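$ run holo --ligand "beta-D-ribofuranose" --emit tokens
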Amino acid sequence: MARPRVLIDTDPGVDDAVAILLALASPEIDVVAVTAVAGNVPLAKTALNARRIVALAGRGDVPVAAGRAQPLSEPVVEDSVVHGRDGLGDLDWDEPAVALDPRDGVELIAEMIGAGPLTIVAIGPLTNLAVLLQRHPGIDRDVEHLVIMGGASFQGNVTPAAEFNIWADPEAARVVFDGAWRITLLPLDLTHQAYLDDQDLDYFHSLGTEVGRRVAAMLEPYAQFHDRWYGTRDVIMHDAMAVYEVLDDAAIQKRGVRVAVETDGVHSRGATFIDRRRENADSPVRVGVTVDNDRFRARLRERLASFVD
Ligand code: BDR
Ligand code: CA
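-- output --
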């Protein structure tokens, strides 16, 4: 059987970088493109960071294109405090050996859908996918599977109600969740179960490869942010969960839900209402509920160790 074709729509982002490397190191899937969207940092930086990571993986065969620079409504994209001023922990990088693909990122997604069954891994704000749907009505039905990192039931991380990827463009999220895709949603309630600790950072550094050294170096300021924010250096691997789901459908336990996105509200803009009631058991939208972190960590270690200089 052919390997699933996967497109990653992303706003790197330190945890995006780990997710992309995990995908590029995994023989179960065929990464056909990476598209950048504004999010953790503005589009010029997320597109550059996507090129840096694809180049770091030695995968010049994977096109990297830039999508939308601003959310559907409010222009709010600024530099993140979470991922460093450049979005990847402020390391020194040479000019990446991977050029920016001249195609518009949204049209590249459409092209990849037209070329055959496609899984989309969406690990940034959902702007590119909303614009895709607006420009190509019905294209959601042609997508095999859409895996989204975003949302929260219990507690947001930008506001008490809202998780970053949804908060950054709630109108886009609403357009996407109103579509007809088969969706797997991995919200904070799930991703906070998946984290790395200092032993993992030491392990990556000890690999002695460029990938190992850079991953450890990118994760260090991210760990310091987690320490300031959450009181522990454990680094949450939000975005890698979306790739992990694609690698192994049994790794994350899921249930059928309906999802509504709040676009108004003084305190609740960007909130996701994830309706887990049993009447939604057969919904085409599923939410990730539990994951075994030890298994995930072992898989991530093994895959990142497979990169050689
Ligand atoms: C999400 O927000 C970003 O900062 C991360 O890259 C992840 O996609 C987590 O809320
Ligand atoms: Ca992200």
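-- notes --
The chain has one domain: 5-104+113-304.
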